[in-house]
């Protein structure tokens, strides 16, 4: 009886539903009329959960910036479809050859990488071990007086070597490439034609409707050399290729593996090459809302670099440790090594949260004879804010995994 009732119900729905099935879609297309999307590819006609009041205001702004590009070793963006994005590349050495690192890949054969601590909001600490090269990246957000929407953020990058694994033939210094890219096509301005952090910490500036005018600053007590290149590109999936091609061209033409200190017209991507002898540390800060009357840019740069940044990172690290202990009571259950593993598990989960925007592809019925370009239909444009199952293999949302992710995330954020 149950099966009969379900069949009958489906028949009634079929006969009364205004939505066409897949066959009628193709029939209307063949007749030259505009095909209608099936029900599965149309939004549910109701308010979205993300638009509820509790997800607006300060809560929404507090999550605006983050390490929301989990497919990269270090990538920062805002939760908006056309964001100002930042990322890190560096030169690694494998089998005696130089290789540019950027996207998380198993074939890079890094000994280890991952967020050993991350609170999912405004702090993260990551360690990457690349064949004797050891990079530590730390992320911090701040939202003080004068900041633009979403506040400011800073990244500290520390570069060391494991002398037992590093051959001096590979070089006595490291090369980092930190970049900004504007998905909205806004022009990025270089701080000055010849970059010198002893004269000015300003690397770049620009303007956006969401965060107002902004500036990017770099500070370091180490002796660093800087070069840059600016690119105008419609795509951002191939930034590694742009840098590799520029370095190859410079090496062929000038016998130097350094960026050109020049730019395309109206660049929407700026890449900064940071060269320093081992070990070295650099602090990079993005300051938003610099056009406001009380922006206090210099004070905010100082608060996000140097000793002030060190103190704030230490405070955030301690707060993370306390939250993990309060949530899971690990000290009563396991040894210190297991506690470190637990913190890294939570840190990697929260550090793997990403923001995505686009249209999902939905497969059409296999029983129909479709042309190749009709093998799928596209969902409506939508945002997705989610943890990811695996940064190098599956750096995107997956509903099955997200259910398990939320069991842990809920525990962490209930305190």
UniProtKB/TrEMBL annotation:
Q: Known EC number(s)?
A: 3.2.1.106
InterPro entries per UniProt: 6hp_glycosidase-like_sf, Glyco_hydro_63_C, Glyco_hydro_63N, Glyco_hydro_63N_sf, Glycoside_hydrolase_63
* Top EC group: hydrolase
- Give compartment(s): Endoplasmic reticulum membrane
Q: What is the catalytic activity of this protein?
A: N(4)-(alpha-D-Glc-(1->2)-alpha-D-Glc-(1->3)-alpha-D-Glc-(1->3)-alpha-D-Man-(1->2)-alpha-D-Man-(1->2)-alpha-D-Man-(1->3)-[alpha-D-Man-(1->2)-alpha-D-Man-(1->3)-[alpha-D-Man-(1->2)-alpha-D-Man-(1->6)]-alpha-D-Man-(1->6)]-beta-D-Man-(1->4)-beta-D-GlcNAc-(1->4)-beta-D-GlcNAc)-L-asparaginyl-[protein] + H2O = N(4)-(alpha-D-Glc-(1->3)-alpha-D-Glc-(1->3)-alpha-D-Man-(1->2)-alpha-D-Man-(1->2)-alpha-D-Man-(1->3)-[alpha-D-Man-(1->2)-alpha-D-Man-(1->3)-[alpha-D-Man-(1->2)-alpha-D-Man-(1->6)]-alpha-D-Man-(1->6)]-beta-D-Man-(1->4)-beta-D-GlcNAc-(1->4)-beta-D-GlcNAc)-L-asparaginyl-[protein] + beta-D-glucose
Q: Which GO terms describe its biological process?
A: oligosaccharide metabolic process; protein N-linked glycosylation
The membrane topology of this protein is: Single-pass type II membrane protein
GO CC aspect terms: endoplasmic reticulum membrane
User: Which PANTHER family does its entry note?
Assistant: MANNOSYL-OLIGOSACCHARIDE GLUCOSIDASE (PTHR10412), MANNOSYL-OLIGOSACCHARIDE GLUCOSIDASE GCS1 (PTHR10412:SF20)
What is this protein identified as?
Answer: Mannosyl-oligosaccharide glucosidase
Q: Which organism is it from?
A: Pisum sativum
């Amino acid at each position: 009886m149950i099966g009969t009732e379900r069949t009958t119900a489906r028949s009634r729905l079929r006969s009364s539903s205004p939505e066409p099935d897949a066959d009628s879609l193709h029939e209307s297309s063949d007749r030259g009329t505009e095909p209608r999307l099936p029900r599965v590819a149309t939004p549910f006609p109701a308010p979205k959960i993300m638009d509820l009041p509790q997800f607006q205001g300060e809560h929404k702004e507090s999550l605006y910036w983050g390490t929301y590009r989990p497919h990269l070793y270090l990538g920062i963006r805002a939760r908006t479809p056309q964001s100002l994005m930042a990322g890190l590349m560096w030169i690694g050495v494998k089998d005696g050859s130089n290789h540019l690192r950027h996207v998380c890949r198993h074939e890079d054969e890094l000994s280890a990488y991952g967020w050993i601590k991350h609170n999912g909001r405004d702090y993260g600490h990551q360690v990457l071990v690349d064949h004797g090269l050891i990079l530590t990246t730390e992320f911090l957000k701040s939202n003080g007086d004068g900041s633009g929407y979403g506040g400011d953020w800073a990244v500290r990058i520390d570069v060391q070597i494991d002398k037992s694994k590093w051959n001096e033939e590979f070089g006595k210094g490291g090369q980092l490439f930190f970049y900004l890219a504007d998905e909205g096509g806004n022009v990025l301005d270089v701080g000055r034609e010849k970059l010198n952090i002893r004269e000015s910490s300003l690397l770049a500036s620009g303007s956006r409707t969401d965060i107002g005018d902004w500036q990017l600053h770099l500070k370091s007590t180490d002796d660093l050399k800087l070069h840059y290149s600016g690119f105008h590109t419609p795509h951002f999936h191939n930034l590694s290729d742009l840098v590799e091609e520029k370095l190859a061209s410079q090496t062929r033409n000038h016998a130097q593996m350094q960026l050109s200190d020049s730019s395309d017209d109206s660049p929407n991507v700026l890449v900064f090459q940071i060269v320093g002898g081992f070990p070295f540390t650099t602090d990079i800060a993005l300051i938003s809302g610099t056009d406001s009357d009380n922006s206090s840019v210099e004070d905010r740069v100082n608060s996000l670099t140097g000793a002030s940044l060190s103190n704030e990172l230490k405070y955030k690290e301690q707060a993370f440790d306390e939250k993990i202990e309060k949530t899971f009571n690990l000290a009563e259950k396991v040894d210190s090594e297991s506690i470190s593993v637990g913190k890294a598990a939570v840190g990697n989960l929260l550090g793997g949260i990403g923001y995505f925007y686009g249209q999902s592809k939905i497969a059409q019925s296999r029983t129909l004879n479709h042309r190749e370009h009709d093998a799928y239909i596209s969902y409506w444009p939508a945002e997705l804010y989610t943890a990811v199952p695996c940064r190098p293999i599956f750096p995107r949302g997956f509903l099955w995994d997200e259910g398990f992710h939320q069991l842990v995330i809920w525990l962490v954020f209930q305190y």
